[in-house]
Amino acid sequence: MVGYKFMGKAHSHAYRDVSFYFDNQVEPVLQAICGRDQAAVKEAAEKMGWLSYETDWRALIARDDIDLIDIVTPNSSHAEIAIAAAEAGKHVFCEKPLAMTLEQAKRMLAAVEKNNVLHMINHNYRFAPAVQFAKNLINSGRLGRIYHIRATYLQDWIMDPQFPLVWRLSKEACGSGAHGDLAAHSIDLARFLVGEFNEVSGLMETFIKERPLVEGSSGLSGSASSSKTGPVHVDDASLFLARFENGAIGTFEATRFAGGNRNGNRFEINGEKGSVRWDMEKMNELDVYFHDDEVNVQGFRTISCTEEGHPFAAAYWPAGHIIGYEHTFINLVVELVKGLEKGESPAPNFVDGMKNQAVLEAVERSASLKRWVAISEIES
Ligand code: SOE
């Protein structure tokens, strides 16, 4: 794995715990973790159970005891590492968003396909049992024709103007702010549950345009420098409208300035026969509404997706015990491991990552040109 901080911890935990809950043929081995800071990556290896560590990702990729490279670095290094790993014959698992641009995403997809290696992208929220159950309801026709998706991803961790310019706020490191970090997840959920995007109309805003520079930091925290400040070139909030190829329409909002919302990844989907509603902050629950209920008992009701018939749930605890954020990564790793067994790239993979990147880029172009942008305009 290349990287070892927040996502490094979530991925490492998933690799170590997947066999505790699921019977797997392929057992993940935490062979080597990589980071530039030798002391820090050595400590991470010891703490998270990696057998060895490297300080140069090229040395990691050159090792013949490595089958898969997991990329949990800032967005700006995804393409270089993924392409080199594919060319070295390694399977590739990459954090979202796939890349900085659609052009990079296309090159990453071409590299994994040309080298015939497996590929996957970490859109972990698909793997919450309640989201999988929503997918089953939609696929079974229980909601009928889909009219709307209303998706928000609301956080509030950078509302303090003194919060420093960490890499998640750096255009050079990330390409965008809340847009690529949060809207990417909502776009993936919309593609998973509703369908492919046709055209978008967006707007983006940066509320705090100058922040203290940072010395040592991860993507979510940092010790600000005393006096120096720097300009912020990424969005603090990104909103857009969407039309889907199947006629559905959508509204999307991603922001890091929605005070009181810590990880408010939410959606509501309305169909001709019913609706579903999900909130990551109550991730085990799915609110459902069915139009064919008797009128006097119609209304949203809450299903606790912890039982048989709720995907992945039965592997954890019986009788309504709930699971957490980290289990969405375990469930994704179950699919990754199955893919390795079958020799097939499970969804979501680099095709999904590339399509996601096209929507991200279409919204950015729409916001700058102040007009609707068709996805086909970006992909051509
Ligand atoms: C920060 O906004 C972040 O860590 C995202 O980068 C992750 O993808 C999301 O799962 C939680 O919030």
Automatic annotation (TrEMBL):
Record keywords: Oxidoreductase
Keyword match Oxidoreductase: yes
Keyword Cell cycle: no
Domain spans labelled Gfo/Idh/MocA-like oxidoreductase N-terminal: 1-123
Residue ranges of domain GFO/IDH/MocA-like oxidoreductase in the record: 132-277
Superkingdom of origin organism: Bacteria
InterPro entries associated with the record: Gfo/Idh/MocA-like_OxRdtase_N, Gfo/Idh/MocA_oxidrdct_glycsds, GFO_IDH_MocA-like_dom, NAD(P)-bd_dom_sf
Any Pfam family the entry gives: GFO_IDH_MocA
GO molecular function: nucleotide binding; oxidoreductase activity
Transmembrane segments: none
Stated name of the protein: Gfo/Idh/MocA family oxidoreductase
Organism: Halalkalibacter oceani
Lineage: Bacteria, Bacillati, Bacillota, Bacilli, Bacillales
